[in-house]
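hey can u check if this looks right to u? its 169 residues, i copy pasted from the old doc so theres a chance i mangled smth
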Amino acid sequence: MNGATEQSKSYILRAPKTIEEFEEYYHLRYKVLREPLGEPKGTETARPLINELSGIHVCAFTPDGKKVIGAAMGFMSKDYAKVHALCVHEEYQKLGLGRALMNALEAKMKKRGATSVYLNSRTNTEKFYQKLGYVSVHTMTQEEAIKITGMSIISVSYTHLTLPTIYSV
């Protein structure tokens, strides 16, 4: 039985607040997004670093608030937004947490004035983003065998979104 089914199905969604929470947030981003590609530590942050510093960060924590189990980060550029990172701890995948993180991130972007949201998706996550309403706008190949698809969602209605402190699946 994985950790997600052993625990209650409520997750706390909020920005990381302490140095320790940011360290755990970046560690999860590295373990899920960069380490599987053989990338070194340090590649889990956005470049240029100003995007990371001015970014919109959302974390999913276990119900007790002690463990980061999901992370999302995006940044603004005038009237559009870019999703830079989205990841969920392996034990908590396929439970709706990725959707909850994206909803929270998109709501914060909308609040800051975004009318369009862009992201790059790996082949294995393309269907996830399509279910959220994103459409492919171009395809590129990064590194050796990773197909990246640029996707966007334009003029999204966010009226159905709420930004709860606790998200229940």
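The CA atoms of residues 9 and 169 lie 6 Å apart.
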